[in-house]
Amino acid sequence: MLKRLFVVLPSFGLAATLAAPLPAxxxxxxxxxxxxxxxxxxxxxxxxKDPAALKWAIEQSNATRSALAAKPIYGQVAAELKAVLGxxxxxxxxxxxxxxxxxxxxxAAHPHGLLExxxxxxDGAPGEWRLALDVDAxxxxxxxxxxxxxxxxxxxxxxxxxxxxxxxxxxxGGDQVELREFDLLKGQFVKDGFRTAASRTQAxxxxxxxxxxxxxxxxxxxxxxxxxxxxxxxxxxxPLESAPVVAQGEATDAVxxxxxxxxxxxxxxxxxxxxxxxxxELKLIDAAGKVTAVDLPRRVKSFGLLAATSRHLIVQLxxxxxxxxxxxxxxxxxxxxxxxxxxxxxxxxxIFAPGNGDVVNDAFRGIVATETRVNLIVDRHLAKRVVxxxxxxxxxxxxxxxxxxxxxxxxxxxxxxxGGDVIVDQGGFITPTRLDLLRPGKPLQTLYSEKxxxxxxxxxxxxxxxxxxxxxxxxxxxxxxxxxxxxxATPTLMxxxxxxxxxxxxxxxxxxxxxxxxxxxxERGGALALPIIRGGGERGEAWHRAAMREKRQVSYDDFLAVxxxxxxxxxxxxxxxxxxxxxxxxxxxxxxxxxxxxxFGAIVSDVPLIDMLRxxxxxxxxxxxxxxxxxxxxxxxxxxxxYSPFHNIKSGTAYPSFFITVSxxxxxxxxxxxxxxxxxxxxxxxxxYYFEDSEGGHGVSDALQxxxxxxxxMTFLIDRLMN
Length: 723
Prior knowledge:
There is one protein chain. This protein has 723 residues and is α+β, with helices and mostly antiparallel strands. The chain has 14 helices and 39 strands. Helix 2 crosses helix 14 and helix 3 packs across helix 14. The longest helix has 19 residues. The radius of gyration is 24 Å and the shape is globular. The two termini are 45 Å apart.
């Protein structure tokens, strides 16, 4: 699904230093954009592997390493983090494939993962696990820094046997991948099997000897985001270059995504054309390459196709739509019947139409499909439940299957495309992750229980609210010690995202809250706040659109309102309040730090967007103009200039210290943004610690793969924010 191409959710990071209080500022009171704009003398830093830019990045990273490793606390922090990583494995990524279960398991000894497979018993539970691929061993054997992109196996492993998979291996962790055919049962790559050079690639099996593929070869027309726009039907034993084009997007599109549904002779490919991230077009492609248009409204929620049964495509309306003479409401989850015998007037049916405060808001792990069923996570005022739906031939019948306890998050992490089983993830800030097998009509069966990494008895989770600048109430989660030893000065981290309709929720030491390094913060008396800001999808598509393009400042106002509430309530103070974020969250953290430096003691900006005039020219930024606006438009340029961090950093302002992290191989956003942020801060005399890793791509902040980065970041946090 398209959602996998887009973002990596926030990774842990926060740094701190003291900043002298300043008069309150905001975008509304900022000087005219033209006057605030900095001369862009740093464009030379944008090219990821330009020798001069790389030399600068290495020097900056070495300086950061030397400065933070010299802190007295560094040795202790590094040792504690090593102990945490050695004692606590993150939950494995499970996949259900018919009579097989597959998991990608990582630990300190295997930070890049062990791909394991097991046969499932009559009760659906996996039997004995067998190693299929050791990614770290592959890296060593082939002398390539591979990272395995293991997702959407129902598309890249061939149903119904699921013995052959198209593995996507990224050299360095970026979006470019090598495609290699792999025998899952034998645990080896197929000799003379399907294989491509590293490129931005999409693929889906159609039959044993035919694959749908979009590959950014030299002769291909690319989208504005640098992804291939043409879909080829590639037959075994033939050169990829000779594979005929069966479907074509436009060079102005954001991205093309491929999926598949069904099995055997009726297996069908699905092409999702993201014209932008608000407008989508779906097409069906059969094994002979015949293309059939899917007659659905184009204005569906991100990210287009959400799931597929063997018979139905699943999408969610972003706005009301007239279908077959009936007006269907925004937020309705729809099914499109691909059966040839189904009359066109009866192809679209409603699975779930939210009401009474209900919203289906998680495109990543909130909707899954099995062979005939659909499961949804429904959110009502931050309380979640699993709803099951089954098609009876004319309509969908729904029923509640599971409700989460207060303060617990629910997600759907796997579903069997040729069966009926689903894996549900339950966890929260202080509740370790548990993975349960959900079978229709059967009790839950626990597959995995995460070991507690810290004593949660001394903490509680609250849901509070703060009024934003326009009066809108913004809910936020607050994880805090039960006993506050320093009222008014509780060391507190804030994180958020607020774009593309992506929803955040509490998880147990997961990427949203910073991963296992958060344990070190909590055990020293720290707290964590997660605001539910506009631009995200937590309240539905209207909540998302409230902070798009010219309304982007709304998202920052929401976040700042929570920061002010934490301080005016005497929970914390600017010297002890920090903010961190990744990707768009990195833009969020940098923006609020530049707009209101008086509110924060520290800013961490991880793999961020920073230069909002040049973002379409870096990474795959050209795909995001629907969300942020087109800087070539004069009116939109003025809007972007009002908050673009790079253009609003000014001499004479006391900024909190910044810790800025990125990977050279990040071709999602591009390292140029992070480099330019550090250089501009340094230019005005502000403190900026910069660290660029040669690997990691857009997910560079991974404690298992890069423990040094996380130890440096935690050292910075503890040394500055907790003193």
